[in-house]
Design brief:
It comes from Klebsiella pneumoniae. The protein is of the alpha/beta class. 40% of the residues lie in helices and 16% in strands. The protein folds into two domains: 190 residues, Isopropylmalate Dehydrogenase (3-Layer(aba) Sandwich); 78 residues, no CATH class.
Length: 283
């Protein structure tokens, strides 16, 4: 949100209050390595060859970004800054259910990320996630410390299905997931409340350096529309049609500049038109 070079932090004045106002407590970020794009994955070729399809479920309105007290005080050698990590039972229960329900529609595995060997908030997180997990006997539950999770994502991302994370840990891991796909231009994002109202956006930044040049990869925006159809409008068939059209375009070698290593690149408009045509054809 905003240009990084602007020197401002609009997330403090706009994005975080927006999430809080609309009670957008759950953030869903799919991260998938599409067939044919393995060469763009920064991981070793033998790891990329296994592919991966991960859904990062991040709690969005609790934790250290919103906990009180926070601030700065004192001066000189006694100056200090502080933040507070706070999680309530209801916050953990509802995000855990989102993760388990999502896993039921995927490969039936949830990996919950915490730091329960150190943090009291993580101890509560692990206890409650384990309780909720008993309501979903068909879904495998594993717990993993955040430091190990960051390593395992690089070592073997194919082991993961749904990652369940607190606000801070999800912020870190969802960006790591994004980078190993090969391009930020492929990554959609959905932030939802309990009524299904959502804020949908590409997971990448605003890319002001290429604004107006018609070279940006539009797939993240288009996939964000697919998420809107699926989660807010209950139009799963339409969402799947969009996803299938994107798969076909990529399988046929259609590439924007971020993915056109040694091949001809199409423009933003051209990529959008090709995907729209494939949707209309009912791929």
């Amino acid at each position: 949100m905003g240009a990084p070079a602007a020197g401002e932090q609009p997330e403090r004045g706009a994005l975080l209050p927006l999430r809080k106002h609309f009670k957008l407590f759950s953030n869903l970020r799919p991260a998938k390595l599409y067939q044919g794009l393995e060469e763009f994955c920064p991981l070793r070729a033998d790891i990329a060859a296994n592919g991966f399809d991960i859904l990062c479920v991040r709690e969005l309105t609790g934790g250290i970004y919103f906990g009180q007290p926070k601030g700065r005080e004192g001066s000189g050698q006694h100056e200090k800054a502080f933040d507070t990590e706070v999680y309530h039972r209801f916050e953990i229960e509802r995000i855990a259910r989102i993760a388990f329900e999502s896993a039921r529609k995927r490969r039936h595995k949830v990996t919950s990320i915490d730091k329960a060997n150190v943090l009291q908030s993580s101890i509560l997180w692990r206890e409650i996630v384990s309780e909720i997990g008993k309501e979903y006997p068909d879904v495998e539950l594993a717990h993993m410390y955040i430091d190990n999770a960051t390593m395992q994502l690089i070592k073997d991302p194919s082991q993961f299905d749904v990652l369940l994370c607190s606000n801070l840990f999800g912020d870190i891991l969802s960006d790591e997931c994004a980078m190993i796909t090969g391009s930020m231009g492929m990554l959609p994002s959905a932030s939802l409340n309990e009524q299904g109202f959502g804020l949908y956006e590409p997971a990448g930044g605003s890319a002001p350096d290429i604004a107006g040049k018609n070279i940006a990869n539009p797939i993240a925006q288009i996939l964000s529309l697919a998420l809107l159809l699926r989660y807010s409008l209950d139009a799963d068939e339409a969402a799947t049609a969009i996803e299938n059209a994107i798969n076909r375009a990529l399988e046929e070698g259609v590439r924007t500049g971020d993915l056109a290593r040694g091949t001809a690149a199409v423009s933003t408009d051209e990529m959008g038109d090709i995907i729209a045509r494939y949707v209309a054809e009912g791929v």
